[in-house]
């Protein structure tokens, strides 16, 4: 299976959409305010516009290392720091956060490289790399990620064209869930994380129907008290078409075999559905 690249660069459109997703950004602000203490050393990995690092600076952090791969956004981070009178606290590093070197141990890691199912984004690679700069007391925002899966009878034709050749990050009106939903993955970011999902979960068919896709949803604990789920930008459902659709029978149990490295493209995920042995 292909190793995912950590060279992810969002467009200005995507970064702007992320910034102005107020439901998402306000939750991150609250989590940072609840976590960062005066004098803390903070890393904002995949900093984008720099808004999260700016929150930390305004909340009393001593030093923020804002790591951003896209050169354009490094300039925006500097501009935001200047506009908010925290330039003396924010050091911008134009670098790959999964390889960067930090000159000191850190108290808080903020890493908003989240994506449904943890596809596309290198959150796990980045956190695993930066773990070498942790103290025993270092806190991570987020600290836990959960992913859920459900079988789907999915919309296949649009504009008179078969569209079931790619995944999509939205549900169509006639998409119909045809099984129970189960959690298939839980990532504890406070500990080293295996970079590969390789699991089997069991669901129950709700209908006698063809399942030609799965829908994956997710959520993350920013702190033990603050949870982020679907917003305008974050954690939209990910519909992935099955290579081999399955004829379901209502009431029977089915195994979903799931394997992929975190950060990979949805097209590289191996997802197979089989009837569970011993069904009555």
Mind explaining what this structure looks like?
This protein has 280 residues and is an alpha/beta fold. The chain folds into two domains: 12-141, Rossmann fold, CATH 3.40.50.150; 145-275, Distorted Sandwich (Hnrnp arginine n-methyltransferase1), CATH 2.70.160. It is 18% helix and 36% strand. The chain contains five helices and 16 strands. Strands 6, 9, 10, 12, 13 and 14 form a six-stranded antiparallel β-sheet that branches. It has a five-stranded parallel β-sheet with strand order 3-2-1-4-5, with helices on both faces. It starts with 11 loop residues before the first helix and ends in a 5-residue tail after the last strand. The mean pLDDT is 94.
Topology of this protein?
Blueprint: H1 12-19, H2 22-35, E1 41-45, H3 51-58, E2 63-68, H4 71-83, E3 90-94, E4 106-111, H5 123-130, E5 134-141, E6 144-153, E7 157-158, E8 161-162, E9 176-177, E10 182-188, E11 196-204, E12 210-221, E13 227-228, E14 238-247, E15 253-261, E16 270-275
User: Radius of gyration, rounded?
Assistant: 20 Å
* Strand count: 16
Series of secondary-structure elements, N-terminal to C-terminal: HHEHEHEEHEEEEEEEEEEEE
The count of helical stretches stands at 5
Assign the CATH topology of the largest domain: Hnrnp arginine n-methyltransferase1
Would you summarize the structure shown here?
This protein is an alpha/beta fold and 280 residues long.
């Amino acid at each position: 299976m292909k190793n995912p690249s950590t060279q992810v660069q969002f467009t200005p459109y995507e970064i702007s959409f992320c910034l102005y997703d107020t439901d998402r950004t306000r939750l991150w602000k609250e989590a940072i305010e609840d976590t960062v203490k005066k004098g803390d050393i903070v890393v904002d990995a995949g900093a984008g516009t720099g808004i999260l690092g700016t929150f930390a600076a305004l909340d009393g952090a001593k030093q923020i290392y804002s790591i951003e791969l896209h050169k354009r956004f490094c300039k925006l981070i500097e501009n935001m720091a200047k506009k908010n009178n925290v330039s003396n606290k924010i050091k911008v590093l134009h670098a790959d956060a999964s390889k960067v070197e930090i000159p000191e141990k850190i108290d808080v890691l903020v890493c908003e490289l989240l994506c449904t199912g943890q596809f596309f984004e290198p959150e796990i690679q980045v956190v695993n790399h930066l773990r070498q700069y942790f103290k025993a007391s270092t806190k991570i925002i987020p600290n836990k990620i959960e992913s859920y899966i459900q079988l789907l009878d999915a919309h296949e034709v649009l504009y008179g064209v078969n569209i079931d050749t790619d995944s999509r990050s939205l549900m169509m009106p006639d998409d119909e869930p045809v099984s129970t939903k189960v959690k298939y993955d839980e990532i504890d970011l406070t500990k080293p994380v295996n970079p590969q999902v390789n699991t089997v979960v069991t669901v129950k068919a709700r209908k006698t129907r063809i399942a030609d896709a799965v829908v994956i949803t997710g959520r993350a604990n920013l702190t033990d008290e603050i949870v982020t789920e679907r917003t305008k930008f974050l954690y939209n459902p990910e519909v992935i078409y099955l290579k081999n659709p399955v004829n379901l029978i209502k009431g029977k149990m089915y195994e979903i075999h799931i394997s992929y490295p975190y950060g990979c493209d949805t097209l590289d995920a191996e997802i197979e559905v089989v009837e569970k042995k011993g069904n009555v």
